[in-house]
## 1
Amino acid sequence: MSKSKAELCQDKYFNTFYITHIKDATNFAFYKCGNNAVALDLAQEAFTKIWENCAKIEIGKAKSYLLTVVNNLFLNTKRHEKVVFKYAKDSPYHDHTNKNPEYLLEEKEFKLKLTNAISSLSDNEREVFLLNRMEEKKYREIADLLNISQKTVEKRMSNALKDLRAKLGDLKF
Amino acid sequence: MNKEKDILKWFNSELTSEQMKERYPEEDFSLLEKSMFYTKNIERPNVNPESALKDFRAKYAIKKEPKVIPLNFSAFLKIAAVLVVMLSASYFVFFNGGKTISTDIAETEIFSLPDDSEVILNSKSNLAYDKNKWKKERKLTLNGEAYFKVTKGNKFTVKTTAGNVQVLGTQFNVKNRDGFFQVHCYEGSVEVRHLNKSYVLVPGNAYRWVKNGKGQLMSFKGNTPSWIKQESSFDNVPLWQVIEEIEAKYDIEIVTTKIDVNVLFTGSFTHKNRELALQSVTIPLKLSFNIAGNKVELYNYEAN
């Protein structure tokens, strides 16, 4: 028991742990705060906490601890930088066979509306929505990850979708 | 409402886009479909794990390698000295639960032990016990005479130079003076270990040992030791022991060169009046006494 606990204090174990999880942690922070630089900062700080408490943390539980720390750090600091979403440079269009300039312009506009709408979601809704969409996580997994009930996840997701539809001008909903 | 649920299912990949269109042919899901598609293309933070780790080591994990402050020896010594003083002081405050209670000539002391057992300590006696270990073992060391009212609980042991007395919960009196060891049991039962033998006393029983002699059991009357009532009682006790007891009660020195101190005495003396006390011991033995300051000389009445 004490062996696996102390493992995290050894450089080689910690480095492996860091390399495996830094991306996840940063992405997770990013879904929360929607800002690249802040996300990385939060992740780094979370790893600092892990490092300081390495003797107390079992390596098997370290990942969930890491995400919890990211979450808490975000809630504690709440340094709300502007939420900025960009699309990957080579992101394709929905209908990639349609090269009609009008279509392309419309899609561009839609994408902009979409990022704005996502930015204006509440932190909790955005987090659930992006974990679901970008990480393709099931509601159950999100619930486990955030330590909340699946019902809450579904509620947040449902609110997020309603919000998005309203902002995207889908008046039918 | 069902539609809301189905949309949730759809986003949870429990339903496909085709199934959605089948279920709700009238609805246009293109906006949601597009949102689904484009959201996936949102740029994630581009983290390079290796360089992030380097950065982490440099900026965040500084605590790993504490700054090396060159050893300033005199400052170090000062700090060390202060630490030593503080540590040893705290050791005595926190870890040393040893307690000693002593009485001087003519004093008696009543006090409670940590488990609320009551002790009355007779004159010129001392009692030591460890407060911290008390919960684990009730053990104390007695030199002199004391009366115990022990609350029920673990074994309660009184160690004396002569022998050990063990009880569970009872009232008893232990007297351990030079060359004299006596235990009276007033309630419950008391085990006395002495000279490699063990005796169990029941109320009304006493054990006595006088130096050069054998330990013996005897019976007595009364339900508290007489000394608690400002009186010392003796039953066939050698005179030297009685004299020691008077010396412990009154600040006097008794000279006994002219008499036989091994005669046995039965009777008692008061703790309130020196003259009276001396008389009650000497008259039955046909002795007399001269007081000079705090020296008292005993002599045979008939010889003079």
## 2
Amino acid sequence: MQRCLKSKFFATLLVASLMIGGVVSYAKTKASHQTLVYAAEFEYDLINPILDGSNADGLIFRGLMKFDAQNLPQKDLATAYTISPDGLVYDFKLRTNVRFHDGTLLTAQDVVFTISSILNEKVNSKIKPEFKLVKTISAVNASEVKIILKKPFPAFLDKLTLGIVPAHAFKDVDINTAPFNHHPIGNGPYQFEKWEKGQSLTLKSFKQYYRQPAKIEKVIFKFIPDGNQRALQLITGEVDLAFLEPSQVKRVASSNKVKVYQIPTADYRCLMYNFNKELWKDLNLRKAFNYAVDRQSIVKGILLGYGMAAYSPLQINAFNNPAIEKYSFDLTKAKALLEQSGWKLNKDGIREKNGKKLAFTITAPLTDEVRVKIANYLADQFKKIGAVVKVEALDWSVIKIENTDVFVLVFGSPFDADDHTYRIFHSPNAEIEWNFGGYSNLKVDEMLEKGRTTSDFKLRKQIYQQLQTELAADPAYNFIVYLKALYGVNKKISGIKLRTLGHHGAGFLWNLEEWSIK
Amino acid sequence: MIEFIYKRILQSVLVIFLISVIAFSIIDFAPGDPALALYGGEAQQLTPAERVRINHNFGFDRPLVERYAHWFTQVLHGNLGISYREGRLVSLILAERLPNTILLFGVSFFLIVVLALYLGLKGGFNPGSGWEKILSAGSIIFSSIPSFWLGIFSIMFFSVFLQVLPSSGVESIHDGGDLLDRICHLILPVMVMVVTHVGLYARFIQEQVRVELKKYYVLTAKANGLAAKFIKLGVLRNACIPFLNYLGLTIPGFFGGSIIIESLFAWSGLGQLNVKATLTRDYPLLMGSVLISGTLVVTCIFLTDLGTLILNPKLRRELNQ
């Protein structure tokens, strides 16, 4: 019994001391000013713009160009640039007063090193395809860089928003495994302070930044894998900023501490028709399925209202053409088109042509909840026009998009119109990376080439508007929805400027150096 | 006795080796490659040409046997390879995580054992009492609560409603890291672990004590007028032997369960690392993580075996013969 008593005593003591200690210490650490805590979903594997992009890059690194509020590239490290009339030769003059966080001055060599490293075969860079049109890059002198392209590429200035790394930090090391990747040295408004792996990354304002130093002293990326946790911590004030799921908005918005921002994105979901399958070579069939989608219901039901119906790849772009066929939900039209193509209803209510049933499979990546939901919903909807549609939600390792009947794709870019059209809709060749469905339309090819080589804004706008008309007339995709990005931000933070965001709300932190905390 | 310990160590090493072989083969049969790992959720953008290039850089195009031999020699030299995604030594990544897991695991386990012993003995020695009934019912209720539910509930109550405890992490991100701060971050995850596990262990002991109390030696001792204190000590010792065995058996499951706790409380430990490595197909990291987790479990089982041996004179005598 004595033993029991003793253990009871110790257990009580232990628990009591834990509780008191915890409360005291927690109360102490909650007070913090001039620190912004961002609830990040995933921990970065590494931070190095050569290897991969992250939303911390824009804070730590700066590039030749920087996107403004309209998502247009403006000079940043570059003080001036010229582009040759044929669109192939780019000359950049650099600022001479830019210091890296270790105090060294940035020179043209660093720019050359950064871009040529991306192109290095041995470097496991995910950015490489973005720079594949670079033929040569060289330093004319310490403050001038010359880049020659293989082909004209109007989105190239967008690509040059890439952060520049100091060449001297990579002397005699393999870039793939360099210590730099976990202790980055940049030239941006924030410098690396510490990285508690699995927990948080802390950045602090860089006082020798070549522009106005950032107002908020520290920015902490706190890695919280659980979505509910992120929302809860926003409410408790443990974090100041978090990306939200649609289902969390109501709860978070009811807290008087948090403001929820709904931001339009250029991020769309669509069904890819695979032209390698005989079925989709029939234009009427594609049009019929375009008409058979009730996009408003998907926005309401799957996105809980945070999105909008999609009809074009350039809908969120200066070159948008709102006058094109939008394929608004119309089952009568859909059925008529199917009849026209000879797909007749059989006695089971399923359409048949030459003894073959109208049947196909929609494939979606298992890890993407929204895509799987869209696939399931549409499979059910398409029954209404007499199609038998199966859904396969698969792991990426077993997905071959080229072999699917229909695939739920994610595309869209808030930047230059060329970027997410040329490599998606141009007829397949060795250079075209993302035309998985083998879409081929000579008119579209011609317009894409013309869009590349034209520099006049008005003319380009015309070309891309025509392109959209043609894409609607001969659909490669069945455009479904554009998503809205949702961010919850503590009301003490001001200075946030909204702009159209990219995939998964990328770009929200774009002017963080101007934010302040009350 | 010494011979037995040597034999058990040898067995443990063999088990760990087998774990490594099985894990390596399963991983190799699973689809996926380094390029896919690197791209993760952005796999849609990975072009076939880039896939070939990156996989070649990782040496993934070499034959399986060659890769296995390479990996194995590396491990013998204490090098677990380099993570696909992070480009860092796997051993370094594990070294960051291991202390956190051992802390969470150790503290929870210690509390579970102490509380289970206390509650179980109290219930066992007072058969038919209200205490015993509460324990019997309580153990079922608490062990049926899913730990993620209790976790979310406790976060809602202590972190959101009362705002007295932090809801996630190992330490505060603002100049945290002192002892008090770390203890306070430990409270909620440990509490959830203990509450969801202690009932079953306590009930097990209670059952054992009840069984022991009915045995003849207790009756004989009582009849001979032995002091209650000594009888209890004897019963305790005999009840502890199956309890230790039970502990040894349940440790692997207990370890697996901590993955949920780690994810929920953003506790930067091995469990969370395992999940991340699996989801991102970072196979060198996953192999290292499996190897370390396996070693921990095997070590724990070895220690419980050793404990049984110390407590059970019958077993020792058998060994010595």
